[in-house]
């Protein structure tokens, strides 16, 4: 239901919460953190025991095309298949991601299944660089300005 409202609203998120921007900046300044996220994101997207569908994922852009009012980006998640090979996923968004083929991106969104993610936020992921080049996609209606406090796991990263 919430995903439907987000997709139908078409309202861009006015501003990413400061705690989320700080989290992304810390992630992008550490190759070790990006490596961990790369490994853990692949495990999370394929987990059979996952009790929530939210995800922060690192992927390499393979192709992007517009499909009606949406963008479909094919991305490779390193070593996410059971045999250790890369898994190709579809990243669905309202706008084209700010990346070219071969670029790594950080994706925040909701997993539809093991092969598709609705992206709420997509940004370049280059170690040593602040993640200030974000593409803000859609927020569910009525959630503009949502605060993320220090009690959230990501805030303590």
What does this structure look like?
- It is a single chain.
- The chain is of the alpha+beta class and 157 residues long.
- The chain has one domain: OB fold (Dihydrolipoamide Acetyltransferase, E2P) (Beta Barrel).
- 22% of the residues lie in helices and 32% in strands.
- It is built from 3 helices and 6 strands, in the order αααββββββ.
- The chain has helices at residues 2-9, 18-28, 31-46; strands at 54-67, 70-77, 87-93, 104-113, 116-124, 135-136.
- It is globular, with a radius of gyration of 15 Å.
- It starts with a helix and ends in a 21-residue tail after the last strand.
Summarize the structure.
The protein is of the alpha+beta class and 157 residues long.
CATH architecture: Beta Barrel
Work out the strand percent.
25-35%
Instruction: Give the class-level CATH name.
Output: Mainly Beta
Helix-strand makeup class: alpha+beta
Distance between the termini: 30 Å
The helical percent reads 10-25%
Sum up the overall morphology in one term.
globular
Tally of strands: 6
Which sequence of strands runs across the widest sheet?
Answer: 1-2-3-5-4
What's the multimeric state? single chain
Low-confidence runs (pLDDT<50, min 5 residues)? 133-157
Radius of gyration: 15 Å
Number of helices: 3
Strand count, sense and barrel status of the largest sheet are: 5 strands, mixed, barrel
Give the topology string: H per helix, E per strand. HHHEEEEEE
What is the third-level CATH name, the topology?
Answer: OB fold (Dihydrolipoamide Acetyltransferase, E2P)
């Amino acid at each position: 239901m919430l995903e439907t409202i987000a997709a139908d609203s078409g309202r861009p998120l006015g501003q990413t919460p400061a705690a989320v921007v700080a989290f992304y900046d810390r992630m992008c300044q550490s190759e070790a953190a990006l490596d961990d996220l790369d490994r853990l994101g692949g495990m999370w997207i394929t987990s059979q025991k996952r009790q929530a569908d939210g995800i922060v994922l690192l992927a390499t852009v393979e192709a992007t095309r517009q499909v009606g009012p949406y963008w479909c980006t094919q991305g490779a998640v390193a070593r996410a298949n059971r045999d250790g090979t890369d898994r190709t996923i579809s990243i669905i968004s309202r706008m084209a991601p700010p990346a070219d083929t071969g670029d790594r991106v950080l994706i925040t969104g909701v997993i539809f299944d093991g092969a598709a993610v609705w992206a709420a936020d997509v940004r370049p992921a280059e170690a040593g660089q602040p993640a200030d080049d974000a593409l803000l996609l859609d927020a569910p209606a009525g959630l503009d300005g949502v605060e993320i406090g220090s009690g959230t796991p990501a805030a303590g990263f």
